[in-house]
Amino acid sequence: xxxxxxxxxxRYRRRRLLKSIGLGVAVVLVLIYTLFPYYWAIVSSLKxxxxxxxxxxxxxxxxxxxxxxxxxxxxxxxxxNSLIVAGSTTAISLLLALGAAxxxxxxxxxxxxxxxxxxxxxxxxxxxVVLSGMFELVRWFGLYNRVxxxxxxxxxxxxxxxxxxxTGFIQDIPRELEExxxxxxxxxxxxxxxVLLPLMGPALASTGxxxxxxxxxxxxxxxxxxxxxxxxxxxxxxxxxxxxxxxxYPFGPIMAxxxxxxxxxxxxxxxxxxxxxxxxTAGAIKG
Length: 287
Hints:
Its main location: membrane. The protein has helices spanning 3-45, 64-70, 73-106, 112-123, 127-140, 147-172, 175-183, 188-196, 201-217, 220-225, 234-239, 251-271, 273-281.
């Protein structure tokens, strides 16, 4: 190897080393930026009294706020309500979106692109725009101050989202699989259930989780449509946590409640992490 070739190889190796170091530093910074707020919430939830205002990174391991939450029937009931609302909203959204996404992704009919554009426009509407109209619908159906009103209301933003995303996944599935089944005499419904649905596990997992998170974190509709404490969901329950007096801000209890209500989402991500990654990367590589 000549001196010039050795010099070029050395520069190439240094460049690769610097790129690797830079990428590692960037990953560490992103992890700190995304995980530190949650870590600070945990640290704050384990402090009491004046220690809440001390800028220490190590927790005090005082579980008084967690014990209070676990003995609060209203807060525990709000978690159950959120699980019911988010779970039912996600299930209904996926069930309805499957048929709609198959029709939009595979069948040719007039105004198909217009329907897709309308769905996209609805999915990006601000909630405040439809709040008054949705409130009248909830009252008309007799659902005011009932948990079912939230499932009904949340479909207005989870259903268009799931339809739009699942349509893209179905369009990425090779048409040859569907055509072979149709040639064998299968109906479109049979093709959807027996051919496409088994291939859409990652798509359903990732889309369903995102819809679940949307329903779990929603605040405006939950605050407007629910009046009594026993029917409230987690975001509203956290917002109504009060201190021991009118001059005390319950920072510690709020942080403890935030940590508790984030755990179900973390568990879901850990359980479905493989399918979520596969669903988010589906269609990224062609050929």
